[in-house]
Structures are given as C-alpha cells and as structure tokens.
Amino acid sequence: MKQYSLALDSQSLNAGALLVREADGAVRAASRKKILMVTRELVNVEEPHGEDLSKPNLVKEFLLLRLNAALEHEVCGLILLDSQNRLIDYLEPFRGTFNQASVYPREIVKMALHHNALSVMLVHNHPSGVAEASQADTALTKHLKQALALADVRLLDHFIVAGATVLSMAERGLC
C-alpha cells in the first residue's frame, strides 16, 4: 500500500500550502490532482459498509469523493445494498475512455447475486463536467433495470457525477 505524508507548510512563502513527501523524502507542494488522488485512496479504505444509503443526498456525498474531477476517464460503478438499503459493497468494474465506458448488464447481475444484494445503484462519472444523462445512459438504465428485475434485484437509481455536481436519474424520473 502506498504511503503519503501530507502537511501544511507554515515556514515558506507558500504558507498554508499542502505538502506531499515523496518516497525518497523530497517535499514539494501538492497539486490539486495529487490531493484528490490521495483523497480517493483514503475513501477506498474507509468505505461506509453497513451505512444506510436510502437518501440520495447521502449517496451524492459519498460519490463526490469517489468519482472526483481528477479522473480523466469514465468509471462505472455499483453500489450494492441489502434489504435495509445498507451498503454491502461499492465496486468499480468498468473503466472506459474520456467519453464512454462499456458496461455489461449480465456482469452486473452476476455481481449483485454474488454479493446477495437486493438493490443496486449504478454510478458513473462524466469527465467532461456535463451533468446530463445521455440517450445511452437512459437506454442502459432501462435495460439494466429489466435485467436485474429478472433476478429479483431492484435498480434504485443511476447517478452521474460531473465535477461537483451529482445527478440522480431517479429524481429526474429517468430511472
């Protein structure tokens, strides 16, 4: 596991700057991208297993740390939930390019069944920063909802993260 050392610089001209100590001991000002990368790794370690994620705002807060603006490619993830909408697991099984990712409903159904999930939330990011559902997003959501229903698993929502904005397709009536 990578180890990072972050500290506030109070001795130099960049007072208040966040510093990163590299493996060789060198210290330099941390870039925004580096800070977000470290934050993402820390969130991966401190996942809220067992927490109630029944409210969209809780999921949005969780996703803003997960699928942050530092990612330059699309990632499609799954939030797997139990019968009380508590987190079983968060997975990111699909990775794509800047503007698309291949997602396979059959694989999502298999993962939901493997984790004994009764509900699923689909999530992905838009590196472009545009927080709107495309026709492909809407079609995938409908197709996945039908596929999961055959296995008695509910698709509760499909979230799109674009910069600091998180769109809930369910809140828009698209799920």
Count of spatially separate domains = 2
What is the oligomer described by this structure? single chain
The named CATH superfamily of the largest domain: Cytidine Deaminase, domain 2
Q: What characteristic shape results from the CA principal axes? A: globular
Instruction: Sketch the topology as an H/E string, one letter per element.
Output: EEEHHEEHEHEE
The DSSP helix count reads: 4
State the major sheet: 5 strands, mixed
Helix content: 25-40%
What is the fold named in CATH at topology level of the largest domain?
Cytidine Deaminase, domain 2
Query: What topology, given as strand order, has the largest sheet?
Result: 5-4-6-7-8
State the CATH class of the largest domain. Alpha Beta
Which spans have pLDDT < 50 for at least 5 consecutive residues? 5-13
- Quickly give the CATH architecture of the largest domain: 3-Layer(aba) Sandwich
Radius of gyration: 18 Å
- Can you give the mean pLDDT? 82
Strand content: 25-35%
Number of strands: 8
In angstroms, what separates the terminal alpha carbons? Answer: 38 Å
Structural class label: alpha+beta
Give an overview in words.
With 175 residues, this protein is α+β, with helices and mostly antiparallel strands. It has two domains: 5-43, no CATH class; 50-168, Cytidine Deaminase, domain 2, CATH 3.40.140. 29% of the residues lie in helices and 28% in strands. The chain is built from four helices and eight strands. It has helices at residues 32-45, 56-66, 105-114, 135-149; strands spanning 5-9, 17-21, 27-29, 75-81, 87-95, 119-125, 154-162, 165-168. The strands form two sheets. It has a five-stranded mixed sheet. Strands 1-2-3 form a three-stranded antiparallel sheet, with no helix packed on it. Strand 6 (119-125), helix 4 (135-149) and strand 7 (154-162) form a beta-alpha-beta unit. Helix 3 (105-114) crosses helix 4. The radius of gyration is 18 Å and the shape is globular. Mean pLDDT is 82; it is low at 5-13.
